Amino acid sequence: MKITLEAAGIELTPALKTYIENKLGLLSKMVEKLEGKGNSEIVVEVSRTTKHHHKGLVFRATGNLKFGKTLIRADANGENMRSAIDILKDELKREIVGFKE
């Protein structure tokens, strides 16, 4: 699975990049069961929802998963970037399971 990362309003550090790739790379096994070894791609955009707030759900992660002719999209908000990515992974996993059924 090809993972493309985009950042808007925040710096995409190597540690964050590795974290995203490790978390969302786990979804490739589920997609391979559906599609086989095909051309699957996930585009992940991470950003802040606002610049002046420091508390609350201010970090956002959006994922677009494409395999075959199917597009699965999920959004997640979190108090920090890692929690938003974890929620995004869970949402994409739920959408994939829903698509299988």
- Can you summarize the main beta sheet? 4 strands, mixed
Order of helices and strands: EHHEEEH
User: First CA to last CA: what distance?
Assistant: 22 Å
SS summary, helix count: 3
Radius of gyration over all CA atoms, rounded? 14 Å
Helix and strand composition category: alpha+beta
Q: Main sheet: which strands, in order across?
A: 1-2-3-4
**Number of DSSP strand runs:** 4
Strand content: 25-35%
Question: What portion of residues is helical?
Answer: 40-55%
Specify the overall morphology. Answer: elongated
Mean pLDDT: 86
Runs with pLDDT <50, length 5+? Answer: none
What does this structure look like?
41% of the residues lie in helices and 33% in strands. It is α+β, with helices and mostly antiparallel strands. It is elongated.
Provide tags for this entry.
41% helix; elongated; alpha+beta; 101 residues; 4-stranded mixed β-sheet; single chain
Give a short synopsis of this structure.
With 101 residues, the protein is of the alpha+beta class. The chain has 3 helices and 4 strands.
Write the layout of secondary structure elements.
Layout lengths: L1 E7 L5 H12 L1 H9 L5 E8 L10 E9 L2 E9 L2 H20 L1
Parallel strand pairs: 1-2
Antiparallel strand pairs: 2-3, 3-4
Helix pairs in contact: 1-3, 2-3
